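Morning run. Coffee first, then this:
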Amino acid sequence: MEDEIERSWADLEIVVEVLKKVGFQDLYVSVPLVCKAWRRASLDPSCWMYVDMGKCFGSRKEVIDWWRPAFEAKMDYMVMLAVDRSCGSMRELSTRHCSDSVICYLCSRYAQ
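And here it is:
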């Protein structure tokens, strides 16, 4: 039984290492739906150290949507979710848009 638990934990560590290389959109949308083990691995804070939300913005013709309240609320939610999932381990966040309230949220979470 103990060997099985150790193997299970080792498998989870391997999945976490792979998920560190997955882009934000897949980590946020697809990976948690694969299975329970992948969802658990996707919640590991080390997967959220470097977050690039660039692909969430689509094409340039959608720029007008960036300033609509619904889009802003969606981006704010995703930024806060990434920050929370990083549990303080986030080193880099790249996004093209977020509200002032999210910037204040970031500052409060990482204030020294």
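The beta strands are 50-52, 92-94. Good start to the day.
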